[in-house]
Amino acid sequence: MSDVRRREFIILLGGVAAAWPLTARAQQAAMPVIGYLSARSPQDTTHLVEAFRKGLSEAGFIEGQNVMIEYRWALGQHDRLPELAAELVRKPLAVLVSTGGEVAALAAKGATSTIPIAFIIGSDPVKLGLAASYNRPGGNATGINILTNSLEPKRLELLRELVPHASTIGALFDPSFMAYESQFRDVHEAARALDLQVQELRASSDAEIDLAFEAAARQRIAAVTVAAGPFFDTRRDRLVALAARHAVPAMYHFREFPIAGGLISYGIDSRVTYRQIGVYAGGILKGEKPAELPILQPTKFELVINLKTAKALGLKVPLTLQVAADEVIE
Fold first, then answer.
1. Are residues 206 and 170 in the same domain?
2. Residue pLDDT, tens place only, 239-248
C-alpha cells in the first residue's frame, strides 16, 4: 500500500471512529424522556421507584434501554416543587410523572399545559382543577387519587380501638401541606363522633417534629395520629424513633411505618399505585392521551400492625384488630 493510500485509510478510519460516539449520542437523544417529579426523597422511595420501573417494563419500556428518566426530588420541601417542575419541562419530555401528593401535581400542571402528566395524589383531582372528570380528564393530566387524606377519620377510629380508654388523642399535622385544612376538619369531625378530644400538634421541620412528640409525652396524650403528607414520609425513621423514645402509640398512613418499627398503619400499598402509574406513563409513551385515560382510585386498603412495637409500649392489641389486619408483624 502506498504512503498516500495508507494516509487516506488512516484518515478514513479516524473519521469513522469519530462518528461512532456521535451516532451513539444521536441514538440516546432519540430515546423518549420521562420527567419524574417527587415531593419525597430517593431514600424513602427506593422500593416505589422500583415499582414504577416495573410498571414501565410491563408497558415495554426499560430505563436506559429505550427510555430515559430525569429525576427531581423536593425532599419534603413543598416550596421547591414549582422550580423543579419548571426545570424539568425545559427538557424535551415525552411525559411528566408527579408523585408525593397534590402540591407536586399542581406544580407539574402549573409548569406545562402541553406535556402529558401522570400524577399520584391523595385527594379529589377535579376539585383541585387537575381534571374535568374522573372518566374523561379532558386536559393534559391524568393519574391516581389514592384517597390518603380522606382516610384520616378511619385512622382515628382504628387508633381509638387500639387505645380504647383514651379521652384525648394527639393529631400531628404539617401546616405547610396544602391538604392540611381538610385533614384538620376531618379529624376534628371524626373525634366529635367518637366523643374524643383532639390535641393538635404541628410540624413542618425536624425540630418541630421533636417538639411535637415532647409535648405529647409531657401532656400524657394517650396516642398520636400522624396525618398523611410527603414531609412526614421523608421523616419516617425520625417519627418512628421519637414515638418509641417517648412511648407514644402512633397511627400512620403507609405500611412502611410499621415495617420500620411503627405501631400501626391504615392505607394503600403504595407499590401497587406506583406500578400502575408506570403502566400509565408507558401507555402515554405509546400514544395514549391523558384526556382519555380515566383517573383511577384504589379499592383495597391495608391495616398493618406491629405486635412487637405494641408489646414494647405495653399495649394489648384487641383480637378484633388482629383478625382484621392484612399484615401482623411479630
1. yes
2. 999 999 999 9
Q: Kindly report the length of the chain.
A: 330
The grid coordinates of residue 72 equal 427531581
Range of the domain at 127: 31-147+269-292
Residues 6+ apart with CB under 8 A from 232: 76, 172, 174, 226, 239
Which cell numbers hold the place of 24? 451513539
* Rounded Cα gap, residues 107 and 105, in angstroms: 5
CATH number at residue 202: 3.40.50.2300
> Residues 6 or more apart from 153 whose CB is under 8 A from it?
186, 187, 189, 190, 193
Cell readout for 113 is: 399545559
To which residue does cell 430505563 refer? 63
User: Based on the domain organization, do 142 and 161 belong to the same domain?
Assistant: no
Give the number of domains in the chain: 2
Instruction: State the pLDDT at residue 227.
Output: 96
**Residue 312 and residue 183 in one domain:** yes
90 confidence band (pLDDT: 50, 70, 90):
very high
Cα–Cα distances (Å) from 268 to 32, 110, 142, in that order, read 30, 27, 19
